[in-house]
TrEMBL record:
Keywords: Cell wall, Kinase, Leucine-rich repeat, Membrane, Receptor, Repeat, Secreted, Signal, Transferase, Transmembrane, Transmembrane helix
Record-annotated Leucine-rich repeat-containing N-terminal plant-type domain positions: 34-75
Signal peptide annotation: 1-20
SMART domains per the UniProt record, alphabetical: LRR_TYP
GO CC annotation, single: membrane
InterPro entries the UniProt entry points to: Leu-rich_rpt (IPR001611), Leu-rich_rpt_typical-subtyp (IPR003591), LRR_dom_sf (IPR032675), LRR_N_plant-typ (IPR013210), RLP29 (IPR053213)
Entry superkingdom: Eukaryota
Major place of residence: membrane
PROSITE patterns with a match to the protein in the record: LRR (PS51450)
Molecular functions (GO terms): kinase activity
Compartment(s): Membrane; Secreted, Cell wall
Family in the record: Belongs to the polygalacturonase-inhibiting protein family.
Record protein name field: Putative LRR receptor-like serine/threonine-protein kinase
Length: 416
């Protein structure tokens, strides 16, 4: 914990006394005295965890802190960037709390706190930093709510408060009042409540995973968004707000309680990472966009629609996905030829179809399956001659379903 009477603050007051007695020395201080006072208060609220030496260079008798203090960058004698901690993996970081005096560094454009055990609230006074573009306070033990005053930062571009212990709802103003905001990362906290119905900020990257958020997705999301994750929450409802996201590249809504059909508009380029595992999606197994898009998936693509209630026969639209999880659904009928071609050709490297009601997989006579393939077809309405290559332990040891179950889902068609 920080000492009540800081040696740094004592040295700062001593420096002021010396300057008062010897005015000519003021020209040697290449930093605003207001900023120097703020830095002294910041140092008084934080301390190096044993093994860290971040503050070892903060010598308040130095004539040029802008050149000698680690973690600060100045312009015209004002602090414009403050980085607290080294960020190196072999240093444990800082402890203590964030001082409200941070708001006195009025020319700050970036405020970064590296991982440590800093606790306490985020000072609402940070809302006064009108020049701030980056606020990153990650991987610490910050508590309490996200200050609504952060919605008053007109130039804020990046907000990262992930991996803390923040509680309460997300201020709606973050999504509606910040015209410059592009990156919002609030993952792995204890945030609750519902999201606003409309997100008007032109956000590119929104990460809300691993919180306690409830309610539906916003009915209107910015068309600019490329990365959206809200996995591991308690959200529910349909996915109507996603239909117009033409720039979306990554979508993870797994481990929630969303329901209804999957919008066919999501199965278009450039979306190549799609996660809907452990949901309640119903309707057609994989809808076919109209008109069908060109080959949209390639190297590195991954789609996880496992553990849902998807029914019907497979559409060819996902055939070129490199890693595809469709297991534990209610899929039926034969797997389309396009999936076999992708498997034999090597573009699909993982295909999990176990625990469905599939009646056949189109093997190609005389062709060997790639050795690197992970294909699982167990516990379907067929006795697989292939599809045991790389099955996970969770697939179980039963090769096929009971015949009575298959009759219900495949209109009386027998096991091959």
């Amino acid at each position: 914990m920080a000492k009540p009477q800081s040696h740094a603050l004592f040295l700062f007051l001593l420096l002021l006394l010396v300057n008062a007695c010897h005015p000519s020395h003021q020209n040697q201080n290449k930093i605003s005295l207001n900023d120097l006072a703020a830095l002294a208060a910041i140092k008084d609220s934080l301390t190096d965890i044993p093994g860290s030496n971040f503050f070892s260079t903060w010598d308040f008798t130095s004539p040029d802190p802008c050149s000698t203090f680690s973690g600060i960058t100045c312009s015209l004698n004002r602090v414009t960037i403050l980085t607290l901690g080294t960020g190196l993996s072999n240093t444990p970081g800082l402890a203590g709390f964030l001082s409200p005096s941070l708001s006195n560094l009025t020319e700050l454009t970036q405020l970064i706190l590296y991982p440590g055990i800093v606790t306490g609230p985020i000072p609402p006074q940070l809302g006064r930093l009108s020049n701030l573009r980056v606020l990153s306070l990650t991987n610490n033990r910050l508590k309490g709510p996200i200050p609504s005053s952060l919605s008053s930062l007109p130039n804020l571009h990046t907000l990262d408060l992930s991996y803390n212990q923040l509680t309460g709802s997300i201020p709606a103003g973050l999504f509606t009042e910040l015209a410059q905001l592009k990156v919002v990362i609030l993952a792995s906290n204890q945030l609750s409540g519902e999201l606003p119905r409309t997100v008007s900020a032109e956000i590119l990257h929104l990460d809300l995973k691993d919180n306690k958020l409830t309610g539906a997705l916003p009915l209107r999301l910015p068309s600019t968004i490329r990365y959206l994750s809200a996995s591991k929450n308690m959200m529910r409802g349909p996915l109507n707000g996603l239909q117009s996201l033409s720039e979306l590249e990554f979508l993870d809504l797994s481990m929630n309680q969303f329901s209804g059909p999957i919008p066919s508009s999501l199965l278009r380029p450039p979306l190549s990472s799609l996660f809907f595992a452990t949901e309640q999606f119903i309707g057609l197994a994989v809808p076919s966009p109209s008109p069908p898009p060109p080959s949209m998936y390639g190297e590195g693509s991954i789609v996880d629609l496992s553990h849902n209630f998807l029914t019907g026969e497979l559409s060819p639209v996902l055939a070129a996905v490199e890693t595809l999880f469709l297991n534990n659904n209610h899929l039926m009928g034969r797997v389309p030829e396009e999936y076999a071609k992708s498997v034999y050709g090597g573009s699909t490297k993982t295909l999990y179809l176990q625990h469905n009601y599939i009646t056949g997989f189109p093997l190609q006579a005389g062709l060997a399956l790639p050795d690197t393939l992970s294909l699982c077809l167990t516990y379907n309405c067929m006795v697989p001659s292939v599809g045991l290559m790389g099955c996970p332990a969770s697939a179980g040891g039963q090769l096929s379903r009971p015949r009575s179950q298959c009759v219900v889902f495949n209109h009386g068609r027998p096991i091959p």
